[in-house]
Amino acid sequence: MSHENPSQKAPTTAEEWDERYGTADLWSGEPNQTLTTVVADLAPGTVLDVGCGEGADAVWLARRGWSVTALDVSRVAVERARARAEAAGVAVTWLVQGFGEAETGQFDLVSVQYPAIPRGGDEHVEEALERAVAPGGRLLFVHHDMDQAPHGYDTQDYVMPQHVLAHLTGQGWEIERDEVRERHVPGGAGAGHSRDRVVLARKV
């Protein structure tokens, strides 16, 4: 998960993420607002939390009856998330790995919140996301609205909502949401962002 200021370069390796997480709690400690809004209307099932960070989303989902698999490249983040889940008394399957490094099955919901996933010259990440969703399941992809990203930040370097949307359109998916939402986060590394781009799609 990445709420980085868009003028800053996000870490690119597990070691760099470990260093970033090792300094202090990075995020607000609260589940992401779009996730809680969207998932409130869904029946619990299996969910993959991609880039789980310190685990706020995973714990929130598990408390509401979801069977949660959560992954992050940072061992420090996952250890912190595991401790959060144990304190909350919920079970989560934790994986220390990058998305696409190993097949993890298919899920009723794949949640990708503010990822910092480098984008190569092909669509392998988008294809991996597509494979991870079970028939009838949903992909929720949320990132900061970067229409006014500062000079020097190239959104083409990372997988963004527009890339996911372009990949899924016309490929047997129903686009349920493609919108910009206001967000209000008082603390944590993402407090400076006020709008999110949200894509919610169902595999039909």
Automatic annotation (TrEMBL):
UniProt KW keywords: Methyltransferase, S-adenosyl-L-methionine, Transferase, Ubiquinone
Taxonomic lineage from the root: Bacteria, Bacillati, Actinomycetota, Actinomycetes, Micrococcales
Native species: Kocuria varians
Taxonomy, superkingdom: Bacteria
Name under which the protein is recorded: Ubiquinone biosynthesis O-methyltransferase
PANTHER family xrefs: METHYLTRANSFERASE (PTHR43464), UBIQUINONE BIOSYNTHESIS O-METHYLTRANSFERASE, MITOCHONDRIAL (PTHR43464:SF19)
Protein's UniProt keywords contain Magnesium: no
Enzyme class: transferase
Record flagged with keyword Protein biosynthesis: no
Enzyme nomenclature, EC number: 2.1.1.222
Domain Methyltransferase: 47-137
InterPro entries assigned: Methyltransf_25, SAM-dependent_MTases_sf
MF terms (GO), sorted A to Z: 2-polyprenyl-6-hydroxyphenol methylase activity
